[in-house]
Amino acid sequence: MNLLNENEITLCLYEGKFRNELEAFYLPEQQLEFTELPGESLKKCLEDKDRFPVVVTYLGHAVGFFVMSIGEAVKVYSDNEQAVLLRAYLINLPEQGKGFAVQSIKKLALFVQCHFPLKNEIVLAVNKRNTGAQKVYKRGGFIDTGKRVIGPKGLQYIFHLKIGEERL
């Protein structure tokens, strides 16, 4: 039984106060094959003005992390100029299995509407072999577009979530 209160999960743009918590994040090797730890992502965000680091919090503490990208990076995955790219998504290992992943994914559309108001779609690439992540994204409302790309770790499925449209 999941006792997680979804109202206590928030998504917020990265602030320095989360740095120590994020630097302590840990993932097993089999998960690191498909994503990177927050420290690596934050370095890339400093070098690329089109990357925006986001922290998943529960009761004010960092439990997850991801990056939203705009601009050229999105074009590999979508022809929609109003799309934003979700990348480097992870939940810290000790926090996995508690519902944070699905609940944070369900909050993405509202987060994007608030922080990227001109965007109407979220896209992501998920590795064919990363079946756990595929399930989480689908439970969060993402749909497989049928588009495929070859990424650094093999075949990737392109998922998307429309924003601002009624979904059944």
Automatic annotation (TrEMBL):
Residues 25-142 form the N-acetyltransferase domain. It holds the Pfam family Acetyltransf_1. InterPro entries: Acyl_CoA_acyltransferase, GNAT_dom. SUPFAM superfamilies: Acyl-CoA N-acyltransferases (Nat). It comes from the Bacteria. One of its GO terms (molecular function) is acyltransferase activity, transferring groups other than amino-acyl groups. This is N-acetyltransferase domain-containing protein. It comes from Shouchella lonarensis. The lineage of its organism: Bacteria, Bacillati, Bacillota, Bacilli, Bacillales.
